[in-house]
Amino acid sequence: MRVFRVIRSLNPAGGGPIFGLLQSIPYYINLGIHTSVICFDAPSSPWLRNHSFPIFALGPVIGSYGYHPRILSSLKYLLAQADAVIVEGIWQYHAFSTWLALRQSNVPYYVYPHGMLDPWFNRNKPFKRLKKAIYWLFFEQFLFRDAAGILFTTDQECFLSRTSFSPYQVHEFVVGYGAAKPVHPTNTEISDFLTRYPDLRNKSIYLFLGRLHPKKGLDLLIQSFATILSVTPSAHLVLAGPISLSYQRFLKELIQSLDISPSVTFCGHLQGANKYSAYSTADVFCLPSHQENFGVSVAEALSYGLPVIISDQVNIHEYVTQANAGFVHRDNLEATTSALLKWALMSQESRFKMSCNASTLFRKHFDWEVASLGLSHLLESHYFRT
């Protein structure tokens, strides 16, 4: 079975959907689903090198929307060779052009919204909500209406997506999502990481790893962490991931106003051994997000046996609660602080049990070896039925 996955860009700065796509493809190949990726990046983009699967880069394109008049003919030619197509993300030309390319074709396509229909965006960005409502009415609703299936990572995402725009005529499928198995760094790689960030030695590390963005609730995390220092002076907060200069300036000013600068480290975007070392040296993972469709970084943290402290706006929070793999808190400062304090005051024995629960939760639900089966079974059932 040959599947094409269409995405605006494979630039890793784009966050979770890109990592999920790249990590999952080998597992789908093992299941007999041979995957090619179509992106709208320029062919010379450095992040397109050294992949084990075919990539067709149709860019460069114009702006963040990704339009170019010559795209459609190339897309039609490529997608005609597919048994099925999966659209990664919405609101950009790669999604609408896929509908244009396939609307008179027998090739079925599926759409991963990746949380982009979450009503949080409508509440917090009213001007963009108006633009999207217009775009939905004239364009995006047809992409959804004609799809063989809309793919959701959790029941919560599926439920929330129904409330954002209308008309909403879709075939819904909750297929799950995951992360790659952990890659454990060598002692030398960990030593190199700690040499690069010497302030982390012999500290109790609270880790955030992902795109540093206002929706992640990092202001709540930083303010809560200031309270933790009065209980655990050896605590250290690590903020790892890409960040805009303006937002970094805001966070640093907040940190300075709380007088906790020596206990907070910005690591930037970590890859390879440095990323694995960050997970391996941390004690707990924190994501007090205001909105999180799935949370690939949460699944990655669980794979390393890291207990997680997350808000109830992270859509996999029920799994964490049921498995006792961390603490889930309300989306406010008081609740975030309370959850961090619970961790800080836990015994080593309780922390160890929670760590074991985290590893078990990952293996049971979020290891791509397991998580890939949901989508695989759906694609195969549609393929053999036709």
In short:
The protein has helices at residues 16-30, 71-79, 93-102, 119-124, 126-145, 155-161, 187-196, 218-231, 245-257, 272-281, 296-303, 317-323, 333-344, 348-366, 368-385; strands at residues 2-7, 34-39, 55-57, 84-88, 109-112, 149-152, 172-174, 204-209, 235-240, 264-268, 284-287, 308-311, 326-329. With 386 residues, it is α/β, with parallel strands linked by helices. α7 (187-196) crosses α10 (272-281), α8 crosses α13 and α11 packs across α14 (348-366).
CATH architecture of the largest domain: 3-Layer(aba) Sandwich
Number of helices: 15
Query: In total, how many domains does the architecture comprise?
Result: 2
Radius of gyration: 21 Å
Determine and state the CATH class of the largest domain. Alpha Beta
Taking pLDDT < 50 over at least 5 consecutive residues as the criterion, the unreliable ranges are: none
SS-based structural class?
alpha/beta
Could you give the distance between the termini? 13 Å
Count of strand segments = 13
Largest sheet: 7 strands, parallel
**Rough shape?**
globular
CATH topology value of the largest domain: Rossmann fold
Strand content: 15-25%
Q: What is the percent of helical residues?
A: 40-55%
User: Order of strands across the biggest sheet?
Assistant: 3-2-1-4-5-6-7
Average of per-residue pLDDT values = 95
User: At the fourth CATH level, what is the homologous superfamily of the largest domain?
Assistant: Glycogen Phosphorylase B
Order of SSEs? EHEEHEHEHHEHEHEHEHEHEHEHEHHH
